[in-house]
Backbone:
């Protein structure tokens, strides 16, 4: 029995890091990252394409033919096209989504960006989001890549998470703290 029962995060990291290094060395990192984001968008928004990637019955010739046609139609970076074809050759095409997500994270990390998530009870406009992002960038001395979520269950306030640091000023959290104190008393 094989020790490796599946495609691990380590394997995805290796493929993603290899793509990053190749793109960086060939000065095509921006284009490859753009292609990777476009493919991830296609995977998440097109059920047929997602099923195509996950279909184990398709042979290599069919897969490479479709990828080459997509590449020609959308003028994909040659390195990106070759990488995807390499995944097909190595029978790793099934893991394309995981590899590309990890690649995007590596690109972000190498640029020194920190991931942050903001949840707010009320819908924030772009100006408010930019102001919060700028303030976080200033406080953490790093560029912030922000994910914004509106969550009405918070009742009011914000929940901000940057890396392992969390700031919770939501009314929901404060009510929970009051409830816990009452139970303890």
Residues:
């Amino acid at each position: 029995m094989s020790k490796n029962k599946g495609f691990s995060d380590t394997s995805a990291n290796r493929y993603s890091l290899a793509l990053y290094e190749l793109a960086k060395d060939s000065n095509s990192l921006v284009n490859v990252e753009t292609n990777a984001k476009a493919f991830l968008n296609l995977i998440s928004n097109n059920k047929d394409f997602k099923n195509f990637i996950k279909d184990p019955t398709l042979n290599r010739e069919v897969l490479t033919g479709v990828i080459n046609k997509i590449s020609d139609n959308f003028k994909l970076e040659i390195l990106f096209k070759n990488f995807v074809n390499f995944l097909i050759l190595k029978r790793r095409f099934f893991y394309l989504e995981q590899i590309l997500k990890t690649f995007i994270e590596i690109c972000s990390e190498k640029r020194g960006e920190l991931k942050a998530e903001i949840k707010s009870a009320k819908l924030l406009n772009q100006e408010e989001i930019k102001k919060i992002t700028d303030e976080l960038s200033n406080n953490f001395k790093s560029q912030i890549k922000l994910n914004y979520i509106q969550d009405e269950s918070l009742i009011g306030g914000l929940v901000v998470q940057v890396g392992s640091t969390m700031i919770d000023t939501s009314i929901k959290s404060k009510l929970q703290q009051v409830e816990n104190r009452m139970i303890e008393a």
Q: What stands out?
A: Confidence is low (pLDDT under 50) at residues 1-5. The longest helix spans residues 9-25.
